[in-house]
User: What shape does this take?
Amino acid sequence: MAEKMANETEQMVVTRIFEAPRELVWKAWTDPKCVMEWWGPKGFTAPVCRIDLRVGGRFAFCMRAPDGREFWSGGEYQEIVLQEKIVSSMYFSDSEGNKVEPAHYGIDHEAVDDAYDVVHFEDLGDGETRLTFVGNETMQSAVESGQVEGMNQSLDKFAAVVAELLREK
Assistant: This one.
């Protein structure tokens, strides 16, 4: 599995290549049961995940910290190209998916607020898929806020979910 990140003055971009067909990588990204296995950095769990995967559909994910605190993220799907691309908004939310200010969670500033993320799924042939996550901020800001580290830890967990789906196939 290869990993690539843009330099710190560019937009946040995190790319991984998985030795799995694109439909399995797509499933791991969009199936709530799968997302609950990988959402959040190392040590965090995701006890709740609701996804209405359609343009205009909304999602709400709960991320539980090792100390038991819960952080909710919500958003809306702006564009979906089946097994190729997802564009969505993302914001801090309550458990119903309604937007809340970062201060609700004791966070002074967080770049994820009102972010539009783009995820590309590219079939590389020979059973390999490139997943590219493009965030709405600069790489430098994402590094400083810990988002790049969190995304990479989440993608490590995501890779394990993809591998499990491949074994079950």
About this structure: The CA atoms of residues 11 and 142 lie 9 Å apart. Confidence is low (pLDDT under 50) at residues 1-8. The domain at 3-168 is CATH 3.30.530.20 (Alpha-D-Glucose-1,6-Bisphosphate; Chain A, domain 4). Strands lie at 3-5, 11-18, 45-51, 58-64, 70-81, 85-93, 115-125, 128-138.
